[in-house]
């Protein structure tokens, strides 16, 4: 017979190797768990409060729970709060105490109510604005700003007269070589006497600065601004003493910020216990040159838009878009699954922001949908807040931002959108002009839903003439635009005196806004028959179809969820 002993020895050797590797791996994981469970308490990483509910929860599991809560509550400083829970709650002085995240006066899930009687202020998000042109000027202080997006119900003139205060908890010690004023003071920082003051704060002592401006994100001339209507506002505070400057030039708002989250509350009295607590979103350290696209709050509770949305996302990336931000009110269950898959597939390129209507506005999906149909202008006034939220979220993440609907695509005549932007910038340079936004005329591609597989590629005919003005959509320069409407910029930094914006209407020979609809928007109903009867062929988008289809096929997302 055959002598199999060498083979048995070989098998035994490899079996031993596998067991040894498995033993080493298990030992390594045990050591890692012991390290995180016995780490020094002073590292401010006790993410969940001690108590009966969590006394047997490991430190690693606490971190996982905290991060899950943070992912679910994007505008609440969950990690900051759990990091400093004991320090924040053990303070007897209301002047310094931050509210528990369980004591926040939430409204309709994603909004927080400021504790004042009138006007009603519902805050949604806050941002540290370090753009070079984004200076807030208070007497001798000129530097970065804190921006808070809010919906306000009441007299429009009242908001500018009410003294509001931003209280900011830095989460880290911010100090300087010389403490120039009022360290430990409970008063509001006086920037008129100390415009460049650098204070020494403990991790749980807030910085207090007054709200300096309230910009209405809607032109009063448009109407629909009665006191009983919710209006979108951008509130601004000076970002004094949140960090140290990289340079000695006070005109350069380049800050070195300590690591970790920061929290912000809006109060009316300095020592008031806040009813709100927002995460202070901070820009990326490195500036990106890309293009971001923002899609307004999707509200399709009954209609399955999975195929259109998947195709629209792939078209944007094929055109050269570097980042997409989706706002979700409510969508069909299958659409929600497709969005979840795309969030996993494009983790660094796709962000999903859940949103609701503020205050007393309806928020059950079907009632809200009817509200949008009956109250079109109120719908638009709510949409504008999400557009400005998206602009702020893309500070340093994109050079330009486009605000589009699901039935809209900006299509360059040649190359990609990146090529088009470079071409537009070169033309502006040669003309010695600086534009805040490049805006594209609207051309309709009338679609027939029955029997068509693709909304965007099934029709290669468009209206011969385009519509401009309020029908345009733009590429907004993030560094130059302060606030936006869904069609045009509202306030810009380029004109310091009047905040007016410089807009360039792009020649249709360079690029167009493709608008895919069954019929015209209501305001063009009388002209729609003429537009439908005067169409020409336009197959410019079709050149991206092979790449889009390849990406759809390779991801298998539609195949997985569509019957």
Topology record:
Layout: H1 5-37, H2 59-72, H3 78-83, H4 85-89, E1 106-107, E2 111-113, E3 120-129, E4 136-138, E5 141-143, E6 145-153, E7 165-169, E8 207-210, E9 213-216, E10 230-238, E11 244-245, E12 255-256, E13 263-267, E14 278-281, E15 291-300, H5 306-319, E16 323-331, H6 333-345, E17 350-354, H7 365-374, H8 376-393, E18 400-404, E19 408-412, H9 417-430, E20 437-440, E21 442-446, E22 461-463, E23 473-477, E24 481-484, E25 489-492, E26 503-505, E27 511-517, H10 525-532, E28 535-537, H11 545-555, H12 557-561
Parallel strand pairs: 3-14, 15-16, 15-18, 16-17, 20-26, 21-27
Antiparallel strand pairs: 1-2, 2-3, 3-6, 4-5, 6-10, 7-8, 7-13, 9-10, 11-12, 13-14, 18-23, 19-27, 20-23, 22-28, 24-25
Structural class: alpha+beta
Number of helices: 12
> What does the largest sheet look like?
10 strands, mixed
What general outline do the C-alpha atoms trace? globular
The parts where pLDDT drops under 50 for at least 5 residues are 38-46, 174-186, 191-201, 244-256
- Indicate the radius of gyration in whole angstroms: 27 Å
Quote the average pLDDT. 82
Strand content: 15-25%
Oligomer: single chain
Distance N to C terminus: 60 Å
Q: Helicity, in percent?
A: 25-40%
Number of strands: 28
Give an account of the 3D structure.
The protein is of the alpha+beta class and 563 residues long. Helix content is 27%, strand content 24%. The chain is built from twelve helices and 28 strands. The protein has helices at 5-37, 59-72, 78-83, 85-89, 306-319, 333-345, 365-374, 376-393, 417-430, 525-532, 545-555, 557-561; strands spanning 106-107, 111-113, 120-129, 136-138, 141-143, 145-153, 165-169, 207-210, 213-216, 230-238, 244-245, 255-256, 263-267, 278-281, 291-300, 323-331, 350-354, 400-404, 408-412, 437-440, 442-446, 461-463, 473-477, 481-484, 489-492, 503-505, 511-517, 535-537. The strands form seven sheets. Strands 1, 2, 3, 6, 7, 8, 9, 10, 13 and 14 form a ten-stranded mixed beta sheet that branches. It has a seven-stranded mixed beta sheet with strand order 17-16-15-18-23-20-26, with helices on both faces. A hairpin with a 4-residue loop joins strand 24 and strand 25 (489-492). It is globular. It starts with a helix and ends with a helix. Residues 38-46, 174-186, 191-201 and 244-256 have low confidence and may be disordered.
């Amino acid at each position: 017979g055959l002598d199999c002993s060498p083979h048995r020895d070989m098998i035994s050797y490899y079996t031993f190797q596998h067991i040894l590797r498995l033993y080493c791996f298990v030992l390594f994981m045990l050591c890692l768990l012991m390290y995180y469970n016995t780490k020094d308490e002073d590292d401010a990483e006790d993410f969940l409060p001690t108590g009966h509910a969590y006394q047997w929860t490991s430190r690693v599991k606490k971190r996982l729970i905290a991060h899950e809560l943070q992912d679910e509550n994007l505008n609440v400083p969950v990690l900051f709060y759990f990091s400093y829970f004991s320090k924040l709650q053990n303070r007897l002085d209301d002047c310094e105490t931050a509210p528990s995240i369980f004591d926040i006066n939430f409204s309709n899930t994603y909004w927080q109510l400021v504790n004042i009687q009138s006007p009603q202020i519902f805050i949604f998000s806050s941002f540290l604005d370090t753009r070079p042109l984004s200076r807030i000027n208070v007497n001798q202080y000129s530097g970065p700003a804190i921006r808070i997006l809010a919906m306000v119900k009441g007299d429009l003139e009242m908001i500018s007269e009410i003294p509001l205060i931003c209280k900011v908890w830095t989460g880290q010690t911010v100090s300087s070589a010389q403490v120039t004023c009022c360290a430990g003071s409970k008063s509001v920082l006086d920037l008129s006497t100390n415009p460049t003051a650098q204070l020494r704060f403990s991790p749980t002592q807030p910085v207090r600065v007054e709200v300096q401006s309230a910009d209405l994100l809607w032109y009063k001339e448009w109407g629909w601004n009665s006191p009983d209507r919710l209006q979108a506002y951008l509130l601004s505070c000076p970002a004094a003493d949140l960090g140290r400057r990289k340079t000695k030039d006070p005109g350069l708002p380049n800050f070195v910020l300590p690591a970790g989250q920061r929290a912000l509350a809006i109060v009316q009295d300095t020592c008031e216990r806040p009813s709100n607590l927002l995460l202070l979103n901070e820009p990326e350290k490195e500036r990106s040159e890309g293009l971001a696209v923002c899609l307004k709050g999707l509200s399709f509770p009954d209609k399955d838009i999975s195929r259109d949305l998947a195709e629209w996302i792939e078209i944007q990336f094929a055109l050269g878009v570097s980042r997409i931000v989706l706002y979700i009110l409510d969508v069909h269950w299958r659409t929600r699954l497709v969005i979840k898959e795309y969030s996993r597939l494009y983790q660094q390129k796709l962000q999903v922001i859940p949103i609701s209507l503020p205050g007393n506005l309806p928020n059950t999906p079907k009632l809200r949908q009817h509200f949008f149909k009956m109250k079109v202008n109120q719908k638009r006034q709510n949409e504008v807040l999400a557009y400005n939220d998206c602009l702020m979220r893309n500070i340093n993440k994109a050079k330009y931002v486009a605000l589009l609907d699901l039935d809209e695509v900006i299509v360059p005549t040649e190359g990609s959108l990146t090529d088009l932007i470079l071409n537009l910038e070169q033309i502006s340079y040669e003309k010695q002009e600086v534009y805040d936004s490049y805006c594209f005329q609207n051309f309709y591609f009338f679609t027939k839903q029955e029997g068509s597989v693709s909304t965007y590629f099934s029709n290669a005919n468009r209206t011969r003439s385009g519509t401009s003005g309020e029908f345009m959509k733009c590429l907004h320069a993030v560094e130059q635009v302060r606030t936006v409407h869904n069609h045009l910029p509202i306030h810009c930094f380029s004109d310091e005196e009047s905040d007016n914006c410089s807009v360039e209407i792009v020649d249709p020979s360079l690029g167009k806004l493709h608008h895919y609809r069954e019929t015209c928007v209501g305001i063009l109903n009388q002209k729609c028959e003429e537009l439908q009867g005067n169409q020409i062929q336009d197959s410019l988008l079709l050149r991206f179809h092979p790449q889009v289809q390849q990406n759809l096929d390779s991801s298998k997302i539609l195949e997985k969820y569509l019957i």
